Amino acid sequence: MAKSNLLAHHPLNSPFTKAPIVRLQGQPVLLFTEQHGSLLQALEAKKVRIFSECRSGFCGACKTRVLSGRVTYLTEPLAELKADECLPCCCIPTEDLELDLSPEGAAVVTYAAKGSQHMGRNGHSPTQSTISHGSKPQVSPTFVEVCEE
User: Of 134, 149, 146, which Cα lies nearest the Cα of 29?
Assistant: First the structure.
């Protein structure tokens, strides 16, 4: 099936649908939009460490466990998948999605509390941060903004 046929009635194409948030082990990492192409492309753009051999012809290397949420496939996956797995190379999220991938090294955007000199949208000051090994996010979920760079 062609990509355009599969996406013609996809929820992301509705102007009234919220774009899915993709989380890695609880850490919001990105807001998925149709501009990303596939989930793998979106994760790679945010510098998420995910092994893939898709472009070398080995299907199944990017197999990832889904902790919550659902995906739709752009092309039929060639690898066998369990009910709680997806192939990010050929799918997109249809709702908020949490994956069992480490957020370590991923580029995320967080917002500091009000009162900072340069205010972003919603009155918060944007700060670029990278999650490093062993660190826990110190930002309250109400101050986390997930957006594209």
Answer: 146
Task: Tell me what pLDDT residue 120 has.
Answer: 43
Q: Which of 24, 66, 61 is nearest to 43 (CA)?
A: 24
Token reading at 27: 């850490």
The confidence band for 143, taking pLDDT boundaries of 50, 70 and 90, is very low
Beta strands in the chain (DSSP E): 21-24, 27-31, 64-68, 71-73, 85-86, 91-93, 97-99, 107-112, 125-130
78: left (phi over 0), alpha (psi -120 to 50) or beta: alpha
Which two structure tokens, joined as six digits, stand for 45?
């753009």
Distance from C-alpha of 102 to C-alpha of 23, rounded to nearest angstrom = 10
Please state whether the predicted TM-score (pTM) of the whole model is above 0.85.
no
Residues ≥6 apart with Cβ < 8 Å to 41:
none
Give the distance from CA 66 to its chain's centroid. 12
